Amino acid sequence: MTPSFAYFRGLLMAAVLASVLTACASLPPPTAELAAAQQAVVTASDADADQYAARDIANAREALSRAQAAMAEGRDADARKFALAASADAELAGARSEQARLTAQVAQRRAEITELQRRLGQEDRR
């Protein structure tokens, strides 16, 4: 008896499925995620996150530390999870820092405008 095309197609699909499952099971270590998290923490720190978003940058550093420990222990899935959390917390810290800095600049400009208006009002009375 000669095997049919359907038989070979079934074998081919089984082989493809097996290789996909093998590829998913063996994801590479999360080195890129870890590097991105480290860079995000540095960027947030450079944006004065310690002053304006202390809790968020502390959370980012803690998650980064956990990611590094998990990576060292070979727990790649946990390392990836913690690295992504560290990146998110660091980006939030950076955004909150930027918001605080811009809010302070707006307040300073408003104070300058108020002072100029006061001076102009005094000059009109002379």
Sheet having the most strands: none
Distance between the termini: 114 Å
Query: Which parts are unreliable, with pLDDT below 50 for 5 consecutive residues or more?
Result: none
What count of domains describes the coordinates? Answer: 1
Number of strands: 0
Supply the number of helical segments: 5
Helix content: over 70%
Protein name: DUF4398 domain-containing protein
Domain DUF4398: 32-108
Coiled coil: 57-119
Keywords: Coiled coil, Signal
Detailed description of the structure:
It is a single chain. With 126 residues, the protein is an all-alpha fold. It has one domain (31-124). The protein is built from 5 helices and no strands. Helix 2 (31-46) packs antiparallel against helix 4 and helix 4 (54-72) packs antiparallel against helix 5 (76-124). The longest helix has 49 residues, at 76-124. The radius of gyration is 28 Å and the shape is elongated. This is DUF4398 domain-containing protein. It comes from Marilutibacter chinensis. Keywords: Coiled coil, Signal. Residues 1-25 form the signal peptide. Residues 32-108 form the DUF4398 domain.
